[in-house]
Structure of ABC transporter substrate-binding protein:
Amino acid sequence: MRPVRMAFAGALLGTLVLAGCGQTGTTASPPATAPPTAPATTGATAATGDFPVTVEAGNGQVTIAKKPERIVSLSATHTETLFAIGAGPQVVAVDDRSNFPPEAPKTDLSGFKPNVEAIVAHQPDLVIVSDDLDKVVAELGKVNVPVLVQPAATKLDDAYEEISELGAATGNQAKADEVVVGMKTALDKLAAEAPKDRGLTFYHELDQTPYAATSQTFIGQIYGLFGLTNIADKAPDPAGGYPKLSAEFVAQADPDLIFLADVKCCAQNKGTLAARPGWGSLSAIKNDRVIELDDDIASRWGPRVVQLAETIGAAVAKAGAS
């Protein structure tokens, strides 16, 4: 057996904030750009897909006796990763929030309220979750179903590690390593091309309450690649990285750019922002710098984080040229 990289510590922060929009929260440490090299793995045969394998996941060491052929994913992020690394044909069921890729076998299974009986009905030989809710790990363990808990990434390196670990667990290590290298290369390129001398400020909205995300979150780290200043970092109460801001706070900060991650869930746009008391004269609104994000991409830490970075980079470039 060969161990795969160590698990991630810490609980999820911001989950309750984001659950209303069907999202999962993350936290992150300040950005550190990694070189475009293959991710490290331990063990002599990391790329061969040999079994059994032991993965050090959020729920400790999990040994997988043979290559799984009936995977159930209860995490939208991990569903995306499984298909990106070539494990899609092994996936037999995904949860009700796993809406990408379109061919994922979506069911009414819930990652927020896991039903063990319903999960077992799919005869899984591996279940992947981002949270051990309702003691799902122990309950599935009673019927000898291995479970990997892969918590929300707190920084980019965590996301890379999880992709690598899922590659090892599913027998797709080589493709997982390829995905990670591609992500690193793309993010490095976007960061290098971004104009960082403009002193641009921004506000990232999670929902219209409004909740925001500071630089100490996973999403904040992505923005940090572009040299932007986050107005939420000066919130009176950082609230674990997801402060609830007042309308007055945002109006006074008057950010150069506003990124909306509550478009699909909550129908927010430039017009709805302008209708908020005191927001009609915000620079971002007057200068047409309100960027509508894809809620799903903006709340997940899988391979599509590159698409989020591309959107941010394009907005920064446009603002820098004006």
Q: What stands out?
A: The radius of gyration is 20 Å. The chain is about 35% helix and 15% strand. The chain has a mean pLDDT of 87.
